């Protein structure tokens, strides 16, 4: 074999390999690395999240319309089975909103006046509350034990068992028994003021009730072997007990 024929054979085999290589590249075409980086990744959109966010106001609107329709139907029907529901709806719609009560409750549990309510109650930062704010818890009672640091309140005696009235409106924050005081009711009047009623025979209020001034919360207890009624009464201002005689005229 001559050198000329040998070179022709090598050239022919090289051309055949190039042809096969180009054919493979056409079958498995791969983008250059630079082009792949230019193509942004394709992610599925969170359609469920967008749909739920957009449907939330519509769902609330539908619920409000259904509630309004149900109330309207109840109020316009004369069916006897819906009489209680009509009474409940009427009471709720005509119930007065107790702004001062909400103010006192918020202040009692947070220690500060609410910023979202108008300032309807004048604050008093003195050590003693104004005497005109309070009324006597029981009428016709005489003081049998005065105020001191050990007792931190006074003991009143009545000729018979009498109703115990709230000295000032507020929230009932405690109903239960305390050692040495028997059955006790504590009422928070806001602005750091509390009134304590101990040695009660019966209790007519429950925890977190709102009570108005002069409302009956219980009765005085009966002493052993005597018909006279007894009541323990105390006042607190800014977490310190004060002498009730300095605030309330017991006459």
TrEMBL record:
It comes from the Bacteria. GO terms for molecular function: metalloendopeptidase activity. Residues 151-244 form the M23ase beta-sheet core domain. Pfam families: Peptidase_M23. InterPro entries: Cell_wall_metabolism_enzyme, Dup_hybrid_motif, M23ase_b-sheet_dom. Signal peptide: none annotated. SUPFAM superfamilies: Duplicated hybrid motif (SSF51261). This is M23 family metallopeptidase.
């Amino acid at each position: 074999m001559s050198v000329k024929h040998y070179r022709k054979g090598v050239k022919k085999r090289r051309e055949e390999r190039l042809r096969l290589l180009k054919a493979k590249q056409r079958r498995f075409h791969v983008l250059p690395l630079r082009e792949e980086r230019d193509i942004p990744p394709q992610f599925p959109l969170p359609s469920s999240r967008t749909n739920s966010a957009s449907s939330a106001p519509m769902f609330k609107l539908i619920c409000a319309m259904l509630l309004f329709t149900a109330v309207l139907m109840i109020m316009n029907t004369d069916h006897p089975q819906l009489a209680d529901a009509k009474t409940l709806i009427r009471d709720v719609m005509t119930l007065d909103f107790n702004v001062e009560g909400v103010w006192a409750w918020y202040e009692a549990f947070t220690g500060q006046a609410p910023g979202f309510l108008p300032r309807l109650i004048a604050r008093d930062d003195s050590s003693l509350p104004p005497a005109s704010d309070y009324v006597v818890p029981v009428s016709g009672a005489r003081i049998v034990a005065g105020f001191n640091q050990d007792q931190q309140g006074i003991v009143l005696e009545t000729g018979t068992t009498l109703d115990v009235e709230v000295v000032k409106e507020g929230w009932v924050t405690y109903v239960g028994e305390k050692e040495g005081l028997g059955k006790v009711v504590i009422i928070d009047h806001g602005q750091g003021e509390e009134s304590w009623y101990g040695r009660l025979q019966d209790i007519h209020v429950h925890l977190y009730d709102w009570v108005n001034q002069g409302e009956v919360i219980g009765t005085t207890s009966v002493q052993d072997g005597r018909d006279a009624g007894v009541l323990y009464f105390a006042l607190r201002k800014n977490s310190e007990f004060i002498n009730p005689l300095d605030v309330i005229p017991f006459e």
